[in-house]
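Exercise 7 asks you to align residues with tokens for two separate proteins.
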Amino acid sequence: MLLLMLLLACYSDESLDVPANPDNPPTSDLDIYIDENFIQEYGMAIRYKFEDRFIDPFQRVAPTALEAVRPMLDFVEDFWIGPYVEVENGETFFRKHVPAEIVFLGGLIFNEDGTVTLGTADAGVQITFTNVNAIDRDNRDWVDLQLQTVYHEFAHIVHQRYKLPQAFETISPNGYTSPGSWFNLPNEEALQRGFVSPYATSSPNEDFAETVAFYLFDTEFISFYLTDEEDCEDTDCTARNEGRELIRQKLSAIEAHYEKFTGVVLADVRAAVQRRL
């Protein structure tokens, strides 16, 4: 069986242009809806028709089924746009930072080495949703995949524009993994090191984005990542609690950073997300 691996490709190039084409106005009901509710409203193009540029030459992926596009648009509006628009200062923040291009791919991206890419982004300018054809809002694994992808990538825009919180890299400096080795780290050890996932150990930037994403979508975040286990009787339990203390410090720094530079209270966004789940 293929090893499913979350590979959130985060690039620094922010030179993407989304050309307008007034000579070819949308004609289908779907394209008119996209034009009115995404392009004109937020300056955000929706790419659901497959193009080779969306993947690397040695990758394979299924195109998006037409019948999955509108349900996916509704999902994006409900779970990504909606929570930000609902909270104080959230709509201003969203409109200012929204990527110019959203890409829908029908399946997962299969790589030449046998791994599977679950979501990608050119940080700040493009976010790609995969496995759109399997859309099922009652399937929590599918929902979590989509939300982790979009919240993670949207969080990158914050640190790119406003840097990381002061001294963020020093909270758990010895826990980061060497390049290309994060996927060998078990979830348990990542937690003990003070990280919400193995991928978070790959760099301070990914640590920031993963912590934001998990905080927003994971219903068990507070109980699992922030609340200490009581009456520890072994070293693993103690180490997990020590890791949770580091995560609490990171989240506190992130929340203060968001509020200072964007005016958004991240706890309010989490509450809006959780009401929808």
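Second protein for Exercise 7:
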Amino acid sequence: MTGLPVQPSRRDLLFRSGYGLGAAGLQWLAACDSSGLPEAAQPSGKAARVIFLFQSGGPSHVDLFDPKPVLSRRAGEEIPETVFNGQRVTGMVAHQKSYQAMPSTFAFEPRGECGMELSELLPFTGEVADELCLLRAVHTDAINHDPAITFFQTGSQLPGRPSLGAWVHYGLGSANQDLPAFVVLHSVASEGPAGQGLLARLWGAGFLPSRHQGVPLRPKGDPVLYLSDPPGISRGRRRIFLDGLSSLNRLASGRSGDPEIEARIDQYELAYRMQASVPGLMDVSGEPDWVYELYGEDSRIPGTYAANCLLARRLAERDLRFVQLYHRGWDHHQELPRRLPVSARDTDQPSAALLRDLKQRGMLDDTLVVWAGEFGRTPYAQGEMRLDDYGRDHHGRCFSIWMAGAGLKPGVVHGTTDEFGFNATSGSVAVHDVQATILHLLGLDHERLVYEYQGRHFRLTDTAGRVVREVLS
């Protein structure tokens, strides 16, 4: 019989109920600002943005930031079992017959008015020592590269969680509607192997809406893949195409209530605006010579760490929330006396120049700069012990990172390690603590910045983390 209403099945009822729930969720989001948090929860912090200089591979703290004279006095002696205290080692050294104290071949000296002891490999960093907040007792739960990098970048050793930059974008939204709020830059060591690869999930959005993921900028060709229009498509035609596509997507969104469709619409529109904004951003030809001299000659070569530090300053000037800069090449299991100076040379002058440049422009007061790797290096030698050619294995029990800028005490050292540089003895700081402190400086409460997924409220710091208030100004 025709013309009579058809009774919906249970499957239809559940399906249509899903639409209603999705629509209700969208209505709630519409009542909130771009951060996804209710207006009453809006943050205000001393930092407006973050530039994270991540040194992938594990810089050796005992060769760069944490001098240990005992290693020289006891060179070649076994690290006491009481120091190990049953702690695990990696499979690369598990079958070594001995774990001999390996002194650094590089000298340390006090730098700045604060007297911060730094390696001779970091002369430019030493010149800005009075701006640094050096954490010498950071520790991580991870022992190998991929889980350790993933842990530092996402708060979990397992893949799938949102990255730090994605959480910041989710919590604060964007301050520049013509550029992504979260940008990623890559560089590798100028000599030797590139080291561990980096996967896109490290700057991904995880279970957050995809609009929050990082956008890598490439040094050559199109800065962003597929951003340019194909031949024969004018700016006007692109606008007509996007308007039509947006209409279709909004129809689909109204039917399904899927927030990912709204994110897709936003991304298309952002890409359209980026077509005009990104080329000018990447064109550094107008920078004066003194800027190149400040960052070093490598800053004239696209894709180098120095060029990316300069680009990070330009991004900060345009109010980007989060700039993630990766430098690969710190994985020094062998040939450390030859390879560590290369990585230090690549990064020392540009990192210091970035601080100087931000400060002279009045931007360091509201820009947080973080310099860190995923872990440190062992105070014992990996393999045969030779002063002219030694290596060090992964070490997560204590390592050094530095932070500078908005809301931090300058020229301070927080935390100490034992005489071997093996264990923290005071001021211990976990990776989740570092993450909580970064969010705090941005005005975000790491315990309240949550996202419900699969029936659980997730946060960057999981069930841990504390703000390291001892280093706050």
